[in-house]
Amino acid sequence: MSEEKCIFCLIAKGEIPCAKVYEDDSVLAFLDLSPVHPGHTLVIPKAHYKDMLHVPCELAPAVFSALKKVGAAVMGATGASGFNVMQNNGLSAGQTMFHIHWHIIPRFDGDGLGAWEQGKYPDAAAMQDMAAKVASYLEK
């Protein structure tokens, strides 16, 4: 999707309205139109980046700071006892909007959302093999 047609880029430019909760020079946060719970907020960089692999590392402090501030504000406003920060990369991971964004989802005791199922490696050797394989890509 081109930046000219990207809904999040248009929101960041003020061309499409949003329920803004936070803004600084690099980041914008606004309520999700289809919330998991009221207060579900999206945090986006104002500049267009497709996914995590395309975001410059220099943006990380601004994003992390916004996630921390907005997460605390969402908890305060909703009375949530916690929150999830979710971010999807690629279709198979559930990414549907190809402008990187983070979901802040307020959580409540007994809200029924749960976490994803956890698996296990067959044995310690299989786990070490996977660790070595991942590490080898970091060296490239």
From TrEMBL:
GO terms for biological process: purine ribonucleotide metabolic process; sulfur compound metabolic process. The active site is at H101. InterPro entries: HINT, Histidine_triad_HIT, HIT-like, HIT-like_sf. One of its GO terms (molecular function) is adenylylsulfatase activity. A motif (Histidine triad motif) lies at residues 99-103. It holds the Pfam family HIT. Residues 7-114 form the HIT domain. This is HIT family protein. It comes from Mailhella massiliensis.
